[in-house]
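The material for today's practical consists of a large collection of protein records. Read left to right, the backbone structure tokens trace the chain's path through space. An example says more than a description, so a record of this kind follows:
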Amino acid sequence: MKTPVLVAASAYGADFVRQVGHAHLIPIVAAAGAAGLEIRRELFVDLPNFADLHDLLIAHRLFSVYSAPIELFRANGSLAREELDQVMWEAQQLQSRFVKVSLGHFSPASNMLEWARFVAQAPVPLLLENDQTAHGGRLEAIANFLAVCSSTGMPLGMTFDMGNWRWSGVDAEVAARTLAGHVQYVHCKGVWDDGGKLKAVPLEEGDSYWRQLFSHFPRGVQRAIEFPLVGKDLEAVTRDYVSMLASA
């Protein structure tokens, strides 16, 4: 049985998505056999009518994950409550399956009681992603925070970005073994070192490394294309990679 695959809107390029809008991508993603679209808040030129966007997704039998470029904890360790409330409202209008954010500056000064209250009333489940920052992409910090959440009775799921660990200098295999119990969603991409500058690149069919990472996660875990999708026929290009990831 093939596993449902999503496509992150960013895979089509930031400039292109800002030009055509997320609604333009929905028929492409649906025709390519994907199960959902990861909507990227940072790619909105203006905030859309979220209810209309939801209706278009439903018409094409797609679900969504809402990705918001915010950090849970500000530089002073406080919870970014106002930002979280806003993106939660937006995700609720979209009826998204998850909201994806990054950790930020979690510290001993962070108010976990406020965090627990927020999680308890959140209308859409949160997933924590390892990002490319020095503070939010550290394996130790992420593992510690997820452990604290579990110990306080508020377990949190994770978006495991297999490529972002390269920016943090972390072996993705070690991260997968460490965090496997929390992973509910996987961002799929390869990374190429272009003369000292890391770039996201497509995964290769014959590369066993990324397939090995999936062996640590729950069977059938949600996964998304987050590498560049380029070509004259975007539907065909998308379909090929959706098929590849669905069989992993």
